[in-house]
Amino acid sequence: MKFFIDTANLKDIQEAVELGVLDGVTTNPSLMAKEGIGGHDNVMAHYKRICELVDGDVSAEVIGTTFDEIVREGEALAELHPNIVVKVPMIRDGIKAIKHFSENGIKTNCTLIFSAGQALLAAKAGATYVSPFVGRLDDIGHDGLQLIEQIVNIFGNYGYPTQVLAASLRHVPHLIQCAEIGADVVTCPLNVITGLLSHPLTDKGLATFLADHKRVNA
Ligand code: E4P
């Protein structure tokens, strides 16, 4: 399973890179805004900086909502760096654009997936990744993980090469359950990745080991 970090924060990306387990990055316009990155040139420069930090796919989202806008923006993003994956919203023109990109060798991530039907459509159009949003479904009383399971099963039935990128993960159990289900990729904030490090018995055990060592080596 691949680990992506869901942020536009360079410090968090660097920390995940240093941990040695990072396979890629996902961003979205809200995450860019959170870092105060605005204006076409600044946005492009920021994506480039991220690509230079990480050896893996970097999802950069288009703002356009018509086929022409999505294609124009996506082609400009793809030209920035070979690691760029064009993130396209799940809308009618988005699906048409994904088909166009897949025929022209440009990687895509179809975002804002909330149903198995949407995922199936994106896979048929040739998306490299689909991003079902687990946490946002949980927020409205649905079962986000059940959607991951459905999509993994459907893609498996037909051998679709589209990868299931479980997004909007909020905590460690989300990530672990995605691994059990067989999601190809998880994307989450740094604290969820580093949350995998912790167990109270590890802390307690290490404290005892170090204390015992100190007792006989004082
Ligand atoms: C996916 O690519 C999105 O950037 C992200 O996972 C959304 O997460 P949120 O629901 O926590 O905003």
Automatic annotation (TrEMBL):
Pfam families: TAL_FSA. Pathway: Carbohydrate degradation; pentose phosphate pathway; D-glyceraldehyde 3-phosphate and beta-D-fructose 6-phosphate from D-ribose 5-phosphate and D-xylulose 5-phosphate (non-oxidative stage): step 2/3. It catalyses: D-sedoheptulose 7-phosphate + D-glyceraldehyde 3-phosphate = D-erythrose 4-phosphate + beta-D-fructose 6-phosphate. One of its GO terms (cellular component) is cytoplasm. Transaldolase is important for the balance of metabolites in the pentose-phosphate pathway. NCBIfam families: fsa_talC_mipB (TIGR00875). This is Probable transaldolase. It comes from Hymenobacter oligotrophus.
